């Protein structure tokens, strides 16, 4: 006899890193499940973001799934920062190796998820009318999957081609010999610009704010290094899980404040800069996150590098950010600043003026017109809350998740939302800021253990107490407050506080207390017997919850 009349124990939405990791977890726990994916293949962000130059900013050895020892056999990345194509293929090999593909329905975008208090089940409905019921709902819809729509009224009059980086066509886009504009100089724009510059006739970059771009220093991983990485797989992932941002890097234990000697400071920053990528902020001085003066030292160092690389002093100065380093997520560049030395690359500073599109291209408020054959939008995402706010998710009393989140975002450790029983968030708001595959692994492991507990105790529903949510909100604020960029993140329109989307509630969207502290919190919850939760046993049919902890 089935324990409930649902179609599945669990439904997962999305087949990127977090969706795939969830499918594996559910199967290990002996549950029935189904996954719906809007794309035609697995990958999530790594399926859609096939724009020129797309590759990871985290190193290959930590940007990986690791739920089973056999994964290292499939680990065949060939570059320090794997390309979009490699990451997507890796995920494809994983779902095939572990026979997870058969559970995924592709080309199926979910439109709504409604909770029924009487049946204690979720009904998940797709755009094509398919509807299924389940006990546990696991949206694995990604923290950066809903692109900001181009907010330019003139777009409808523009007669040239235009593309959104996050939804780049699967067929080749021929940019050769064309006059191309790109709007946006975050991590996405920074990857596209040097990649397409050699092909196009003229590339015009519309920059509202500059980024602090760290040199990626990508390289090919040869067989010897592959061997070494595979041998050290477990140790590397252990190191990543013990790093505040989920990377296999070691905090230096040094501070700019203690160093005092300017030459020593420069030497250390040189070493981080030469190592490439995120080593610059994580392995040089620990206090650049918390001390304004130290942060300014690291910021000015990057500005000096920009001035040294870019030949035209005026262009160099326009590329130099003035806000504190780390107020926005720094991108990894691959000869990004060097691209501005090309005669066919032009930088237009739009920090003090608006732009709009017109029939032939882009017009600034000062009246200058630029004609283009192609315009590329790389203007960012509605981070953390975007995908779930877009989905019509309704919990107890028909309350809308997106509606709630337009005013205030409450969760328990980014896993549960009060009033939305059996909804397990994955990689939504309030997870640690850092390398997402590592964060996903920790989070999904906790969700798996929680579901296993419910199954074992025959509990129909889990909801989180308001006190636990309030404690978590306080912890989010406390840990963010100590960073040097708590205020400047808002002023510089950073997505990790929601400030990049006009009208969005501005609050810290990620946990800055670090991966180890996050893991410890989740482990404490389990070892103490889920004290932050209210459960409803399967026998209760009127939907009124009571605490079964201690019954
Ligand atoms: P982003 O960092 O939010 O950058 C968006 C850019 O568009 C900014 O330069 C922004 O300027 C500009 N912009 C937005 N609205 C505009 C407007 N109305 N007019 C003119 N300019 C406008 O977005 P992103 O580059 O897509 O990156 C988002 C995140 O995705 C990254 O931080 C990263 O975490 C992730 N990502 C990762 C990778 C990777 O790992 N390889 C690659 C790409 C993206 P303002 O700053 O002035 O608002």
Summed up:
With 551 residues, the chain is α/β, with parallel strands linked by helices. It has helices spanning 17-28, 45-48, 71-74, 84-97, 187-196, 223-231, 233-241, 256-259, 262-275, 279-282, 292-309, 313-319, 336-339, 386-390, 401-405, 436-457, 466-481, 488-491, 515-527; strands spanning 8-13, 33-36, 104-105, 110-116, 121-126, 131-139, 161-164, 179-183, 202-207, 214-215, 332-333, 345-349, 355-358, 361-364, 369-371, 374-377, 392-394, 459-464, 533-537. Helix 1 packs parallel to helix 16, helix 11 (292-309) runs antiparallel to helix 12 and helix 16 (436-457) packs parallel to helix 19.
Please explain how this structure is put together:
With 551 residues, this protein is α/β, with parallel strands linked by helices. It has a domain at 8-146 and 383-537: FAD/NAD(P)-binding domain (3-Layer(bba) Sandwich). The chain contains 19 helices and 19 strands. The strands form five sheets. A seven-stranded mixed sheet has the order 3-2-1-6-5-4-17. A five-stranded parallel sheet has the order 7-16-8-9-12, with helices on one face. A hairpin with a 4-residue loop joins strand 4 and strand 5 (121-126). The longest helix is centred in the C-terminal third of the chain and has 22 residues, at 436-457. Mean pLDDT is 95; it is low at 541-551. The site of NADP nicotinamide-adenine-dinucleotide phosphate has 24 residues, from helix 5. It comes from Talaromyces rugulosus (Penicillium rugulosum). Keywords: FAD, Flavoprotein, NADP, Oxidoreductase.
């Amino acid at each position: 006899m089935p324990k409930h009349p649902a179609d599945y124990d669990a439904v997962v939405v999305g087949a990127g890193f977090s969706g795939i990791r969830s499918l594996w977890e559910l199967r290990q726990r002996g549950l029935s499940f189904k996954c719906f994916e809007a794309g035609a293949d697995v990958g999530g962000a790594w399926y859609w973001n096939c724009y020129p130059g797309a590759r990871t900013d985290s190193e290959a050895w930590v940007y990986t799934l690791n739920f089973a020892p056999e994964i290292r056999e499939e680990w065949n990345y060939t570059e320090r920062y794997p390309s979009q194509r490699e990451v997507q293929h890796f995920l494809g090999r994983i779902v095939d190796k572990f026979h997870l593909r058969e559970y995924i329905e592709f080309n199926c975008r979910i439109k709504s998820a409604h909770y029924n208090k009487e049946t204690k089940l979720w009904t998940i409905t797709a755009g094509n009318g398919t509807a299924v019921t389940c006990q546990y709902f696991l949206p694995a819809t990604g923290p950066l999957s809903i692109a900001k729509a181009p907010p330019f009224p003139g777009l409808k009059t523009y007669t040239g081609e235009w593309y959104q980086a996050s939804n780049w066509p699967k067929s080749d886009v021929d940019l050769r010999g064309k006059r191309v504009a790109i709007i946006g100089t975050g991590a996405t724009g920074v990857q596209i610009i040097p990649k397409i510059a050699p092909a196009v006739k003229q590339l015009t970059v519309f920059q509202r704010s500059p980024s602090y771009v760290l040199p990626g220093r990508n390289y090919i991983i040869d067989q010897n290094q592959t061997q070494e990485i595979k041998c050290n797989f477990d140790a590397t992932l252990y190191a990543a899980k013990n790093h505040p941002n989920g990377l296999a890097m070691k905090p230096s234990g040094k501070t700019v404040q203690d160093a005092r000697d300017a030459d020593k400071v420069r030497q250390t920053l040189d070493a981080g800069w030469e190592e490439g990528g995120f080593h610059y902020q994580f392995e040089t001085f620990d206090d650049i996150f918390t001390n304004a003066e130290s942060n300014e030292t690291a910021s000015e160092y990057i500005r000096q590098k920009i001035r040294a690389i870019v030949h035209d002093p005026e262009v160099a100065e326009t590329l130099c950010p003035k806000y504190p380093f780390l107020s926005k997520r720094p991108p990894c560049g691959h000869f990004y600043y060097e691209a501005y030395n090309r005669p066919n690359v032009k930088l237009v500073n739009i920090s003090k003026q608006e732009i709009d599109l017109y029939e032939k291209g882009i017009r600034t408020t000062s009246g200058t017109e630029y004609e283009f054959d192609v315009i590329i939008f790389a203007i960012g995402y509605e981070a953390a809350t975007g995908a779930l706010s877009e989905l019509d998710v309704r919990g107890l009393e028909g309350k809308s998740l997106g509606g709630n989140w337009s005013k205030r975002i409450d969760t328990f450790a980014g896993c549960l939302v009060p009033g939305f029983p059996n909804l397990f968030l994955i990689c939504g708001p309030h997870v640690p800021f850092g390398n997402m595959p590592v964060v996903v692994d920790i989070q999904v492991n906790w969700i798996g253990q929680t579901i296993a507990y419910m199954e074992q105790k025959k509990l129909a529903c889990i909801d989180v107490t308001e006190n636990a949510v309030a404690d978590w909100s306080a912890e989010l604020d406390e840990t963010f407050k100590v960073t040097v960029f708590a205020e400047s993140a808002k002023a510089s329109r950073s997505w990790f506080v929601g400030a990049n989307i006009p009208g969005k509630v501005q609050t810290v969207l990620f946990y800055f207390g670090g991966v180890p502290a996050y893991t410890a919190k989740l482990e404490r919850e389990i070892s103490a017997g889920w004290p932050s939760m209210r459960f409803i046993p399967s026998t209760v049919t009127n939907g009124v919850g009571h605490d079964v902890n201690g019954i």
